[in-house]
Design goal:
Layout: H1 2-17, E1 26-34, E2 43-50, H2 53-60, E3 66-69, E4 80-82, E5 89-91, E6 94-101, E7 108-110, E8 115-117, H3 121-128, E9 132-135, E10 140-154
Parallel strand pairs: 1-10
Antiparallel strand pairs: 1-2, 2-6, 3-9, 4-6, 5-6, 7-8, 9-10
Protein name: DUF1425 domain-containing protein
Protein backbone atom coordinates (compact mmCIF):
# COMPACT_ATOMS: atom_id res chain seq x y z
CA UNK A 1 0.00 0.00 0.00
CA UNK A 2 2.87 2.35 0.84
CA UNK A 3 4.45 1.70 -2.57
CA UNK A 4 1.16 2.44 -4.32
CA UNK A 5 0.80 5.74 -2.45
CA UNK A 6 4.41 6.66 -3.30
CA UNK A 7 3.82 5.82 -6.98
CA UNK A 8 0.63 7.94 -7.04
CA UNK A 9 2.40 10.93 -5.45
CA UNK A 10 5.33 10.58 -7.85
CA UNK A 11 3.03 10.50 -10.91
CA UNK A 12 1.06 13.46 -9.58
CA UNK A 13 4.25 15.49 -9.04
CA UNK A 14 5.58 14.64 -12.50
CA UNK A 15 2.31 15.53 -14.23
CA UNK A 16 2.08 18.88 -12.41
CA UNK A 17 5.64 19.89 -13.15
CA UNK A 18 5.39 19.63 -16.94
CA UNK A 19 5.33 22.93 -18.77
CA UNK A 20 1.91 22.80 -20.36
CA UNK A 21 1.16 25.50 -22.87
CA UNK A 22 -2.49 26.34 -23.05
CA UNK A 23 -4.09 28.42 -25.73
CA UNK A 24 -5.96 31.48 -24.55
CA UNK A 25 -9.74 31.44 -24.94
CA UNK A 26 -9.40 34.26 -27.47
CA UNK A 27 -6.71 36.60 -28.80
CA UNK A 28 -6.63 39.76 -30.90
CA UNK A 29 -5.16 39.01 -34.32
CA UNK A 30 -5.56 42.34 -36.12
CA UNK A 31 -6.76 45.88 -35.44
CA UNK A 32 -7.53 48.20 -38.32
CA UNK A 33 -8.58 51.84 -38.07
CA UNK A 34 -10.16 53.38 -41.15
CA UNK A 35 -10.49 57.17 -41.21
CA UNK A 36 -13.40 58.25 -43.39
CA UNK A 37 -14.71 61.61 -44.50
CA UNK A 38 -17.38 63.61 -42.71
CA UNK A 39 -20.28 61.88 -44.50
CA UNK A 40 -19.34 58.42 -43.19
CA UNK A 41 -18.24 57.59 -39.68
CA UNK A 42 -14.76 56.20 -39.17
CA UNK A 43 -14.38 52.76 -37.71
CA UNK A 44 -12.17 50.24 -36.01
CA UNK A 45 -12.21 46.62 -37.17
CA UNK A 46 -10.95 44.16 -34.58
CA UNK A 47 -10.29 40.56 -35.59
CA UNK A 48 -10.39 38.13 -32.66
CA UNK A 49 -9.38 34.49 -32.89
CA UNK A 50 -11.67 32.46 -30.62
CA UNK A 51 -10.47 29.06 -29.36
CA UNK A 52 -13.40 28.27 -27.05
CA UNK A 53 -16.56 26.66 -28.43
CA UNK A 54 -18.84 28.22 -25.79
CA UNK A 55 -17.69 31.73 -26.76
CA UNK A 56 -18.17 30.90 -30.45
CA UNK A 57 -21.72 29.73 -29.71
CA UNK A 58 -22.51 32.93 -27.79
CA UNK A 59 -21.17 35.10 -30.64
CA UNK A 60 -23.14 33.16 -33.26
CA UNK A 61 -26.32 33.49 -31.16
CA UNK A 62 -25.87 37.28 -30.89
CA UNK A 63 -25.48 37.16 -27.10
CA UNK A 64 -22.77 39.83 -27.05
CA UNK A 65 -24.06 42.79 -25.00
CA UNK A 66 -21.05 45.08 -25.11
CA UNK A 67 -17.59 45.59 -26.49
CA UNK A 68 -14.95 47.43 -24.49
CA UNK A 69 -11.53 48.72 -25.55
CA UNK A 70 -9.61 48.89 -22.29
CA UNK A 71 -6.78 51.07 -23.62
CA UNK A 72 -9.29 53.91 -24.12
CA UNK A 73 -10.02 55.96 -21.02
CA UNK A 74 -13.33 55.04 -19.42
CA UNK A 75 -14.73 58.54 -19.86
CA UNK A 76 -13.97 58.39 -23.61
CA UNK A 77 -15.43 54.94 -24.31
CA UNK A 78 -18.81 56.43 -25.25
CA UNK A 79 -17.13 57.61 -28.50
CA UNK A 80 -17.01 53.95 -29.59
CA UNK A 81 -20.20 52.23 -30.75
CA UNK A 82 -20.64 48.53 -31.53
CA UNK A 83 -23.98 47.33 -32.91
CA UNK A 84 -24.58 44.37 -30.60
CA UNK A 85 -27.71 43.22 -32.44
CA UNK A 86 -25.57 42.25 -35.46
CA UNK A 87 -23.56 39.05 -35.49
CA UNK A 88 -19.84 39.61 -36.14
CA UNK A 89 -18.39 38.45 -39.45
CA UNK A 90 -16.87 35.00 -39.08
CA UNK A 91 -14.05 33.37 -41.07
CA UNK A 92 -13.19 30.04 -39.47
CA UNK A 93 -12.58 30.77 -35.81
CA UNK A 94 -11.74 34.46 -36.42
CA UNK A 95 -14.51 36.97 -35.72
CA UNK A 96 -14.42 40.55 -37.06
CA UNK A 97 -16.07 43.33 -35.07
CA UNK A 98 -16.78 46.75 -36.61
CA UNK A 99 -16.80 49.52 -34.04
CA UNK A 100 -17.83 52.95 -35.26
CA UNK A 101 -16.08 55.93 -33.75
CA UNK A 102 -15.59 59.66 -34.10
CA UNK A 103 -12.96 59.69 -31.36
CA UNK A 104 -9.90 60.03 -33.58
CA UNK A 105 -11.45 62.36 -36.17
CA UNK A 106 -10.92 65.48 -34.12
CA UNK A 107 -8.09 66.96 -32.14
CA UNK A 108 -9.48 67.38 -28.64
CA UNK A 109 -8.28 69.03 -25.47
CA UNK A 110 -7.58 66.66 -22.61
CA UNK A 111 -8.36 68.48 -19.37
CA UNK A 112 -6.56 65.86 -17.26
CA UNK A 113 -3.33 66.09 -19.25
CA UNK A 114 -3.81 69.85 -19.78
CA UNK A 115 -2.84 69.70 -23.42
CA UNK A 116 -4.37 69.24 -26.83
CA UNK A 117 -4.25 65.67 -28.08
CA UNK A 118 -3.35 65.38 -31.74
CA UNK A 119 -4.24 62.11 -33.43
CA UNK A 120 -1.66 60.74 -35.82
CA UNK A 121 -0.85 57.14 -36.78
CA UNK A 122 1.44 56.58 -33.79
CA UNK A 123 -1.03 57.97 -31.25
CA UNK A 124 -3.92 55.98 -32.72
CA UNK A 125 -1.83 52.80 -32.73
CA UNK A 126 -0.91 53.35 -29.08
CA UNK A 127 -4.55 54.04 -28.14
CA UNK A 128 -5.81 50.84 -29.80
CA UNK A 129 -3.04 48.42 -28.87
CA UNK A 130 -4.46 47.27 -25.54
CA UNK A 131 -6.84 44.55 -24.43
CA UNK A 132 -10.53 44.35 -25.29
CA UNK A 133 -13.51 42.92 -23.48
CA UNK A 134 -16.40 40.91 -24.85
CA UNK A 135 -19.32 41.46 -22.49
CA UNK A 136 -22.08 38.85 -22.37
CA UNK A 137 -25.13 38.65 -20.08
CA UNK A 138 -23.53 37.13 -16.98
CA UNK A 139 -19.84 37.15 -17.82
CA UNK A 140 -17.19 38.84 -19.87
CA UNK A 141 -14.11 37.65 -21.69
CA UNK A 142 -10.90 39.65 -21.39
CA UNK A 143 -9.03 39.34 -24.71
CA UNK A 144 -5.33 40.13 -25.00
CA UNK A 145 -3.38 40.84 -28.19
CA UNK A 146 -1.85 37.79 -29.87
CA UNK A 147 1.91 37.57 -30.33
CA UNK A 148 1.58 38.33 -34.07
CA UNK A 149 -0.81 41.29 -33.67
CA UNK A 150 -1.07 43.50 -36.77
CA UNK A 151 -2.25 47.09 -36.44
CA UNK A 152 -3.18 48.94 -39.64
CA UNK A 153 -4.03 52.65 -39.63
CA UNK A 154 -5.57 54.15 -42.77
CA UNK A 155 -5.77 57.93 -42.67
CA UNK A 156 -7.44 60.21 -45.24
CA UNK A 157 -4.63 62.72 -44.96
CA UNK A 158 -2.02 60.27 -46.30
Amino acid sequence: MKNLLFLFLFLFAVSCSKDKKTQPLASIEKIEYIDLDYEKQSGVIIDIKVNDSSIIKKLENKQLRGFRIYSIKEKDRNYFFYEVWKAPIRKGNVFSFLIRTSYFSQNISDKEEKKKRIWNKDNITKALSGDVGLIFDKDSVHVKPGKDLKIVIQMLKD
